[in-house]
Amino acid sequence: MRIFALLLVSSMLSFPSFGWGLTGHRAIGLIAQQHLTKKTKRKLREILKHESLAVASVWMDEVKSDSAYNHMTDWHWVTIGDGKTYAEMEKNPNGDVIQTLNRVIDELESGTLSIEEQKINIKILVHLIGDIHMPLHVGKGDDIGGNAVKVRFFGDDTNLHTVWDSKIIDSKKFSYSELAAAIDHFDTESLVEQWQNDDVMVWVEESISYRKLVYDLPNDKYIGYYYIYDAWPVIQDRLHKAGVRLAGVLNKIYE
């Protein structure tokens, strides 16, 4: 029985969890592309060649099936318990999304990386800025980022993480370019500067602030229109901020 329990825990810890699904990540990449300076765009063309940020954004999920990249598995998320701060938490020895983002940004800013090393770091950066803006990638530590919370989405058995990473977005039937266009607009341009001045820990605190909404589930765990009505504005805001902030980080690195 103990061996079975250990195997079960192991399988749950390796449960595939995606930040925003293909559509969400690509929308973030496209939004970022539209907020890059001319100089940054030229530099990224030198490094990524034909790949746009939208295409590069899903690389970290694509390589999950390749054992050569197993060391990146824990980089997609971080655990911060309710009422705790990141400083108070025991750190994952394999790394987490906060450690990895700070390291990758520092390495890119150093100017010492080869073109190929910059290419890999940019792909990591694009993806993980998306992941850290997905509320369930800043997990509370007791349900594997919502993967262990079983729900029904319009009658289909799934889990809370999947609802947030793709089910709600896919229910809107947007292409990633349509989604980016629907999200990326401002009442005041000062918000761009404001969002881009926020550091990584602000992004984390924002994701934590949505826990009450994320976990406000009906007793029967049936997710339908009422839940989506509250969740959709949050999802749009998180995708938008991720894209604008990604552009800000890249502009700072390459200006």
How would you describe the overall organization of this protein?
This protein is mainly α. The chain has a single domain (17-254), classed as P1 Nuclease (Orthogonal Bundle), CATH 1.10.575. It has 13 helices and five strands. The protein has helices spanning 2-13, 21-33, 38-48, 53-56, 59-62, 97-110, 115-132, 160-171, 176-183, 190-197, 200-209, 211-214, 225-254; strands spanning 78-79, 138-139, 150-153, 156-159, 222-223. The strands form two sheets. Strands 4-3-5 form a three-stranded mixed sheet. It has a two-stranded parallel ribbon with strand order 1-2. A hairpin with a 2-residue loop joins strand 3 and strand 4 (156-159). Helix 6 packs antiparallel against helix 7 (115-132) and helix 10 crosses helix 13. It is globular.
